[in-house]
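By way of example, we now present a protein record of this kind:
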Amino acid sequence: MNGPGIDYEAVFQALPGAVVLLTPGLVYADANEAFLSMTGRTREQVVGRYLFDVFPDNPDDPSATGMRNLRASLERVLATGEPDSMALQRYDVESPDRPGHWQERYWSPVNAPVLAPDGSVAFVLHRVEEVTELMQARGGDSTGERARVLESELYTRARELQAVNERLRRAHAREREVALHLQEAMLPPPRPLGHHHAAVRYRPATGALNVCGDWYDLVELPGCTAVAVGDVVGHGLRAAGVMGLLRSALSAASRVADGPARALEVLDLYSRDVPGAESTTAVSVVIDWTNTVLTYSSAGHPPPVLCHSDGTVEFLDRATDPPLGALPEHAPRPQARTAFTDGALLALYTDGLVERRREDIDTGLDRLADVLARHRAAAPEALADILLTELTPPSGVTDDTALVLLRL
């Protein structure tokens, strides 16, 4: 039993619809009886085998697109962790009793993720309904003729919808590429900070448009360094443009404002005249090298982390206010200070590094603290790569990530 009195394996096998479970490598993990009966396959012919080895495209039909369309849908589910309903598909199946003889078949598929506790996609649930009889229905009277016309129209519209969706995906891919190039141009490598070592990283979300709203910045001041990260709500070119405006504004404000709280207050006022900037989060930390003190302020952003030389970890969370635009105009923002010693590590990041679907944010923060403490002796460049490797789930990140690491 898998639950309170419920045998879910028996439920899976008894489902009246045809359902299979696929691994992320698109290998059959299980298939229910309805699927095996509908396809004319035995469990031994399916389970443990690669999907498209069991059901390839009809080699006699050069226009066949069923395999390509199904693979694209399954890969979208794996990349996004979201269900995907496919348009009506023609996908011929080789007769189990007559090798080399292909049967014309029509299907209505839906693919949905089965998530692991860490939010990654453990399996894809592939449910398919066969509509071959509907598509091939024939009748001798006018009613039958009308039905045949409607069915043909339905299939034509479904193919057109598939083509439109494909064009939209290509357009989104082009926009994503342009936005990433723009993001890269606006987030250059940091300049040297004297004998202090810093590392920066920007990693876009895996196969998604949810990119280009994150930024980082390092500003050299007399005896100090101002470090900031931020996250714009939204994605694509618009988010990249808003990000560039806000990054430049905060960078300028940090050069003249009396501390990070005042710099964020100036940024808040500026953001109110920038469409798309509402609800942006940002955090700024000023490092006073002479007095070995960090002064920080946050506008709704995940807290920076200070990892001391002895491995203790301190979250800088004593000066957090709501995101930009959420307070009344000219409202003061809080500011806090904490001391550091030589050799400590400071990490600023965006939520893509620690947030996971269906997981409390504290779990991600604890994971970050653990990795920093264990690898605190590593150089910032190496540690940045370690953090991204150990904190990225197997299915990839679903939000873009900015990261700044400094050896104090």
